[in-house]
Amino acid sequence: MGERGVAVARVRREAKLPPVLEHALFQSVQSPEDVTAALPRLVKSQQLDSAVGITTLELGAYALVLVEAPDVKPDELRAAIRWRVRDLIDFHIDDAVVDAFEVPQKNPTGHNRMMYAVVARTNDVRVLIDQLTQAGLRLEVVDIPELALRNIASLLPEDSG
Q: Which of 54, 21, 23 is closest to 156 using CA atoms?
């Protein structure tokens, strides 16, 4: 979703078969406020009310922050990352949703591992989730465009090998 409209793609997934793009659609709107009104119509017309949905945050609605990976147990990682990014963002950490992913390293050496922290305002994420669920979608994942693109590219036959 963005201020110019809503993009939707339906992908069919079956075990041991590559995903198939069944259709893609962009519904333009006259103003950003029209997005909320367009969503329920789009969900109904594209029969998406029974589909599991994945969405992405809009560019600019989050920050990617490169940080040194903390040396903690996996179940303590998010808390440690929150601690590391608290002084790197322009709003209070209590108002933030934080997730992290490792930076792939081709030749790991003695250098410290690095991670990207994804930081967004909790309220912005909540508004997005509320808009989509009120429109009738069963939202499963809120992602960022960079990771969504990486996930799609990894499914291409050119990427295997």
A: 21
CA distance 96 to 133: 21
Token pair of 43 as six digits? 């969900």
Task: Provide the token pair at 100.
Answer: 């992290």
Q: Which pTM value belongs to this model?
A: 0.82
Judge whether 83 and 31 are in contact, CB under 8 Å.
no
Closest CA to 125 of 55, 64, 41: 55
CB-CB contact of 37 with 55 (8 Å): no
pLDDT (tens digit per residue) in 77-127 = 989 999 999 988 999 999 999 999 887 777 666 567 889 999 999 999 999
Amino acid (1-letter code) at residue 99: D
Q: Alpha-carbon distance 150 to 75, whole Å?
A: 25
Asked if 142 and 61 touch (Cβ cutoff 8 Å), the reply is no
HSE-CB for 61 with a 13 A CA cutoff:
20
3-state secondary structure of 110: coil
**Dist CA 148 CA 9 (whole Å):** 12
Joined tokens for residue 154: 């990894």
